[in-house]
Design goal:
It is built from 14 helices and 32 strands. The protein has 603 residues and is α+β, with helices and mostly antiparallel strands. The chain has 5 domains: 179 residues, P-loop containing nucleotide triphosphate hydrolases (Rossmann fold), CATH 3.40.50.300; 85 residues, Elongation Factor Tu (Ef-tu), domain 3 (Beta Barrel), CATH 2.40.30; 72 residues, Alpha-Beta Plaits (2-Layer Sandwich), CATH 3.30.70; 106 residues, Alpha-Beta Plaits, CATH 3.30.70.240; 117 residues, Alpha-Beta Plaits (2-Layer Sandwich), CATH 3.30.70.2570.
């Protein structure tokens, strides 16, 4: 088994969604004999059912392979297959820190797309050597020369040695492996130095407890060694050392430059901080590695069980999911309309969708999701700054100096015939154009946009208006002051906290009117009249009325001249309605909340 540091190559596979990362990883594993023909299956590294069904990668996965090159030498290849979706870019960034090089896959039928750009820039920031690969050459629409020109124009990478390949047929896989050996650098590190490791990722395993993925920078890590986590100063004994081949395989030692996993008997994920430095407890290091920024939730929403008896089931489900996904947070919340639930933080809407789908599928909980929102910074008159996740907990407007909202830098790549409608949509969303450039007939446009305007349906609308040809990527840049108000919804003069939302003042009137109209259609009629109102502070800006049922109390009265009796009965009915209106609690069906969510999505 080769283990000299010069014979190791650590690399990540990066690309836009659907450009063939996982398929090419499958081909490389098969080519190096990591799995037999019988054990091979499509997307072999995507372990979750939801990843296979949607055909996307959510968690970055690692594999160690042995490869015998044409020069007769044996090499160790450590591959990290990364996700492509913008919500999971934190997975990409930390995977890149563990490697020295990247394979950049570009679909030769689609060309360079927004996420391709974002991932390449991340790789270049990490000083990676990059091998460009042009995938899907077996398709008739493949255009190698045009794709090469795009890579050179938009990204600025030399494509002289770009490798044409097909993940489907296996063509060009051998060339990729040879290029990895010749182009990518071997890891740097000192085998004789004291142990220094980077904690790349961690997840919970039912049988082993917390499994920690590490990259050894200096020294070597062995079984039964006592290690120390530098951020918490906690010490642990290494119980198990292993690598993924892609099956978990136990070994005795991880040497300098290698990527593998360890278990130490840790039971809770919060004790392992991603980006932490691990050292030998007997020979502690003075300085830790720089690590990387923790992932911060950017979208928040309330999750409530449809049936209140499922609250505990939901709580257990969230706790179990958090064991394997430290990037989402939750805390208890109660709502007068929806009962007990949780306020949860996510990295984006796809992340929210996946967590809710896993809760419903794996833990059998029927969920109600409130309107997703972003984190606002509320500056109060006394100088304090409050982070606002839930609009219903906005402080009194008289105490507020101003409110700041998060802004993003968006990159949109589109065929130029759709540019006009994209620019109009961005302007409607309060966007500021910062740059526009062309590569052939494709435009690359940069916008600064408020995250709140983008978070719902921006990507969906972009795809539909461009027949799926445009691609979109973003990064959060800063918080900026905005003219924001809290739009409250009152049903029968009672505020419904689950329907409250933060919104720009210019859009408040229109949204308030639409929400009231939608609720009028969705809330069933009662025996009394129900006003549905939208309000900003104490000012009502829109109103609709749900008429009450009118029971015919006069049917038993026959003949003429009974007008006094009729009047008395009608008066009595009126009093009864007034009383029921006073005490009557309006039931708001689940469809009403979902209907309002769709309105806010379409604005």
């Amino acid at each position: 088994m080769p283990s000299e540091i010069d014979n190791i190559r650590n690399f990540a596979i990066i690309a836009h969604i659907d450009h063939g990362k996982s398929t090419i990883a499958d081909r490389i594993i098969h080519s190096c004999g990591g799995l037999t023909e019988r054990e091979m299956k499509a997307q072999v590294l995507d372990s979750m059912d939801i990843e296979r069904e949607r055909g996307i990668t959510i968690k970055a996965q690692t594999v160690k392979l042995n490869y015998k090159a044409k020069d007769g030498k044996e090499y160790i290849l450590n591959i990290i297959d990364t996700p492509g979706h913008v919500d999971f870019s934190y997975e990409v960034s930390r995977s890149l820190y563990a490697c020295e090089g990247s394979i950049l896959i570009v679909d030769s039928t689609q060309g360079v797309e927004a996420q391709t750009l974002a991932n390449v820039y991340q790789a270049l920031d990490t000083n990676h050597e990059i091998v460009p690969v042009l995938n899907k050459v077996d398709l008739p629409a493949s255009d190698l020369e045009k794709t090469k020109k795009q890579i050179e124009d938009v990204i600025g990478i030399d494509t002289k040695n770009a490798i044409p390949c097909s993940g489907k047929t296996g063509e060009g896989i051998e060339d990729i492996l040879e290029q990895i050996i010749t182009t990518l650098p071997a890891p740097k590190g000192e085998t004789t130095s004291n142990l220094k490791c980077l904690l790349v990722d961690s997840w919970y395993d039912t049988y082993l407890g917390v499994v920690i993925l590490i990259r050894v920078i200096n020294g070597k890590l062995s079984k039964n060694m006592k290690i120390k986590m530098m951020s918490t100063n906690q010490e642990y004994i290494v119980e198990k050392v292993g690598v993924f081949t892609p099956k978990p395989t136990d070994i005795s030692t991880l040497n300098t430059g290698e990527i593998g996993f360890i278990t130490t008997g840790i039971k809770v994920l919060s004790e392992t901080k991603v980006g932490d430095t691990i050292c030998d407890a007997a020979k502690p290091l003075e300085a830790a590695l720089p690590g990387f920024k923790p992932s911060k939730p950017v979208v928040f929403c309330g999750l409530f069980p449809v049936d209140s008896s499922e609250y505990q089931k939901l709580k257990d489900g969230l706790a179990k999911l958090q064991l394997n996904d430290a990037s989402f947070s939750f805390e208890p919340e109660s709502s007068s309309a929806l009962g007990l639930g949780f306020r949860c933080g996510f990295l984006g809407l796809l992340h929210l969708e996946i967590v809710t789908e896993r809760l419903e599928r794996e833990f059998d909980v029927n969920l109600l999701t409130t309107t997703p929102g972003v984190v606002y910074k509320v500056h109060l008159n006394n100088g304090t700054i409050v982070d606002l996740q839930n609009p219903s907990s906005l402080p009194d407007p008289t105490l507020i100096k101003f409110i700041e909202e998060p802004w993003i830098k968006a990159t949109i790549i589109t065929p130029d015939q759709y540019l006009g409608s994209i620019i109009k949509m961005c302007q409607d969303k309060r966007g500021i154009q910062t740059n526009l450039s062309y590569s052939g007939n494709r435009a690359v446009v940069n916008y600064e946009l408020p995250l709140n305007e983008v978070v719902f349906d921006f990507n969906d609308r972009l795809k539909s208006m461009t027949s799926g040809y445009a691609s979109f990527d973003y990064e959060i840049i800063e918080h900026r002051e905005g003219d924001l108000v809290k739009l409250g919804i009152l049903v029968n003069a009672e505020p419904v906290d689950a329907l409250a939302m933060m919104i720009h003042k210019d859009f408040a009137q229109r949204t308030g009117k639409e929400v009231c109209e939608k609720l009028k259609d969705l809330i069933p009629r009662h025996n009394f009249m129900i006003p549905v109102q939208a309000a900003i502070g104490g000012k009502i800006i829109a109103r609709e009325t749900i008429k009450g049922f009118k029971k015919d109390v006069l049917t038993k009265i026959h003949g003429g001249g009974a007008t006094d009796r009729k009047r008395k009965l009608l008066e009595k009915q009126k009093k009864g309605k007034a009383r029921s209106k006073q005490f009557g609690r309006v039931e708001i069906p689940q469809e009403a909340f979902i209907g309002v969510l769709k309105i806010t999505k379409n604005n």
